[in-house]
Amino acid sequence: MQNKNLYSIFLSVLFFSAPAMAANYYINSRAGDDTNTGTTKEQPWKSLADLEKKKFLPGGYICLSWKKKLALNFVFNQ
């Protein structure tokens, strides 16, 4: 019985102390829409405008899809 309680406590601590999952964001200037969620390839944003509004976590990706040559500068603040 004591082992079951320790196991339950361990799982609870593990669950509640897990770091937040980083999200991936997709941008497609041809097929996207800025009203989309931007979190799937099927619902990409159209422009970079929403990037300034989001808080990004380590491990996330920003996936860009453009037909034209692309030159961008990003500045990430803490």
Could you walk me through the main structural features you see in this protein, from its secondary elements to its overall organization?
The chain has a domain at 22-70: asparaginyl-tRNA synthetase, N-terminal domain (so0334 like fold). It contains one helix and two strands. It has one helix at residues 2-17, and strands at 25-28, 62-65. It has a two-stranded parallel sheet. The longest helix has 16 residues, at 2-17.
The CATH class of one domain is identified as Alpha Beta
Strand line-up of the largest beta sheet? 1-2
Q: How many distinct beta strands? A: 2
CATH fold-level label of one domain: so0334 like fold
CATH architecture annotation of one domain: 2-Layer Sandwich
The structural class is alpha+beta
Number of helices: 1
Low-confidence region ranges: none
Compute the CA-based radius of gyration. Answer: 19 Å
Architecture blueprint of SSEs:
Elements: H1 2-17, E1 25-28, E2 62-65
Parallel strand pairs: 1-2
In short:
It contains one helix and two strands. It is an alpha+beta fold and 78 residues long. It has a two-stranded parallel ribbon with strand order 1-2.
Question: What tags apply to this protein structure?
Answer:
single chain; 78 residues; alpha+beta; so0334 like fold; two-stranded parallel sheet; 1 helix; 2 strands; 21% helix
